[in-house]
Amino acid sequence: MGTRMPMIIIMDNNTALLRLMTWLSPAFPVGAFSYSHGIERAVHDGVIGDKVSLQLWLEDLLSHGSLWNDAVLFAETWRNTTHGIDCLDTSELAQAMAGSKERHMETMLQGSAFLQAIGHWGHANSKSIKEMAYPVAVAMVAAQNGIACQPALSAFLHAMLSNLIQGAVRLVPLGQSHGVSLMAAVEKDILDVAERAMSSSLDDLGSAAIISDIMAMQHETQYSRVFRS
């Protein structure tokens, strides 16, 4: 049985927008810039070598891989939080679904850092929770602040993809203009996946992005690397 969660804060849309922009900004101290989500190994092995191959990789992650699972977990957490149900079980499920040591580290360290940093909005988090998977932590705080699920989830996915693209710009390498054009190209995919996840349940969890999982595992033993995953 779940326990009751803190009272939901209701705020206007402008404040909600500002908070999402702050919490999911590259400057927010969760250390997102340290992680490539296995892309560093994919570049090393020549699986990703240009803009086209990177876009296909990201689209697969978003629609059929780890980012899809994050979206489902995000939506589940948001719903549970709005109904006063805690999300510790969902966080444990997110941990269990991390396909490698580095994927587990990536989601848990970012989630814990997010909960710590969010303390500057004193009412926004449960201070008794110190460790939580990243999509679960962001969804919980968004729901507690009365931010609607769809914009919160879309912003979360946008931030995740933006971080991966910026890492790939350095690794491939690609020009900044390529990075910007990729963000424009995946915009519709982000919105489609967010909408699909809104009506999902935990039964919809599952990944078919096997090569991405293998790259994440192989990155653990890569001799020379820039990123932590």
Automatic annotation (TrEMBL):
Its main location: cytoplasm. Gene3D superfamilies: Urease accessory protein UreF. It comes from the Bacteria. InterPro entries: UreF, UreF_sf. It is found in: Cytoplasm. Keywords: Chaperone, Cytoplasm, Nickel insertion. GO terms for molecular function: nickel cation binding. GO terms for cellular component: cytoplasm. PANTHER family: UREASE ACCESSORY PROTEIN F. UreD, UreF and UreG form a complex that acts as a GTP-hydrolysis-dependent molecular chaperone, activating the urease apoprotein by helping to assemble the nickel containing metallocenter of UreC. The UreE protein probably delivers the nickel. Belongs to the UreF family. HAMAP family: UreF. Required for maturation of urease via the functional incorporation of the urease nickel metallocenter. This is Urease accessory protein UreF. The lineage of its organism: Bacteria, Pseudomonadati, Pseudomonadota, Alphaproteobacteria, Hyphomicrobiales. The gene is ureF.
